[in-house]
Amino acid sequence: MFETLKEQPADKILMLMQAYKDDPRDTKIDLGVGVYKDASGNTPIMHAVKAAEHQLWEAERTKAYTGLAGDPAFGDAMVALVLGDAVPRANVAAAATPGGTGAVRQGFDMIRSANPAARVFVSDPTWPNHLSILRHMEIEMVPYRYFDDETRGVDFDGMMADLAQAKKGDVILLHGCCHNPTGANLNMAQWKEVVALLLKTGATPMIDIAYQGFGDGLDADAAATRLVASSVPECLIAASCSKNFGIYRERTGLLMAVSQDASARKLNQGTLNYLNRQNFSFPPDHGARLVTMVLTDDTLRSEWMAELEAVRNSMLGLREQLASELQRLSGSDRFAFIAQHRGMFSRLGTTPEMVEKLRAEHGIYMVGDSRLNIAGLNSTTVPILAAAIIDVGI
């Protein structure tokens, strides 16, 4: 039977990781993998998370299943973190998932259950897992313009023109703060225009948010998501704890279904529970319990927020250093966008050929579309990257 299976395309990120490992050069720099690294190149466990683990080890008395939607306290803590008081808690159904990607998958499944003919509008570019999951589920995708290779900012006019083609029953997949792989973000005035367009077309928004706290601060980074959730009749939000809690391998995520009609919560919650049951039954709990402990303990939360702020400021400092060094070497401000972008990523807006040249001649690894992980740098490697960028002629 299995001889009928088709060969699946290799994951480009995993291929890049292997190529980096196989490269013998001591000067090589990994800017491809999307995980946070400190100045030593490590992905550390946050002190607040480690402290919570110690407390949990002492206090935990059972490994019995939680509910189908996970521990309700985790849902409460994450809804409060992401939405604040923008939406009443009674209007939000929530279910824990295996990571943010699990939340995305469950969101797409809920969309397909509600409307098998739904089209999902996806930004160009978006994350590969969005596209591969939609393709696997045979859900129709409609790309919309997002990144302008000339300005290295958002092509907002193109984006709005494309999204105007959406209609009721369609879903528009939007990126929360710092989430688009280009590093370019909408400003609040633009978000308000997006909300107006959503209300006009009747399309339903789904927001993927995984980097809250990496841009301009926890509340500032959630402002756009809160605006959308409080303004439209209903929306989905897929949230990840991998990045801002540094618990990548714990696979901790949450899917929220928000409705202005509080009576819809029962049906939405039942659907989320059902979808979890069909896919993996009970979600993983360890990471979710750590996040709950951190967010509900004043001391742990304060320590976590301080650590997260240090991570944010570190990336902002690297952005400013890289933009400044490139300006010095090039004699122009054409790289100023790097300091303006937010989060872990920026897209240089160059060709795959130039990216390959950086790898071959300088041992600098980044994704073929020129997306680089700012957190893969440190103060020593920034000048090396800047010199390489200028040397290859970007």
Write the layout of secondary structure elements.
Blueprint: H1 12-22, E1 29-30, H2 47-59, H3 72-83, E2 92-98, H4 99-114, E3 119-124, H5 128-136, E4 140-145, E5 147-148, E6 153-154, H6 156-163, E7 171-175, H7 188-201, E8 204-209, H8 218-231, E9 234-240, E10 252-259, H9 265-279, H10 286-296, H11 298-330, H12 337-340, E11 345-347, H13 352-362, E12 364-365, E13 371-373, H14 381-392
Outline the structure in words.
The protein has 394 residues and is α/β, with parallel strands linked by helices. It folds into 2 domains: 11-45 and 312-388, Aspartate Aminotransferase, domain 1 (Alpha-Beta Complex); 65-296, Aspartate Aminotransferase, domain 2, CATH 3.40.640. It is 46% helix and 15% strand. It has 14 helices and 13 strands. The longest helix has 33 residues, at 298-330. The radius of gyration is 21 Å and the shape is globular. The model has no long low-confidence stretch (mean pLDDT 96).
Q: How much is the radius of gyration in Å? A: 21 Å
Mean pLDDT: 96
Give the helix/strand class: alpha/beta
CATH homologous superfamily name of the largest domain? Type I PLP-dependent aspartate aminotransferase-like (Major domain)
How many domain modules?
Answer: 2
Q: How much of the polypeptide forms β-strand, as a percent range?
A: 5-15%
CATH architecture term of the largest domain: 3-Layer(aba) Sandwich
CATH topology of the largest domain: Aspartate Aminotransferase, domain 2
Largest sheet: 7 strands, mixed
| Spatial shape | globular
Order the strands across the largest sheet as they lie in space. 2-10-9-8-7-3-4
How many helices does DSSP assign?
Answer: 14
The parts where pLDDT drops under 50 for at least 5 residues are: none
Distance N to C terminus = 50 Å
Number of strand elements: 13
How are helices and strands ordered from N to C? HEHHEHEHEEEHEHEHEEHHHHEHEEH
What's the CATH first level of the largest domain?
Alpha Beta
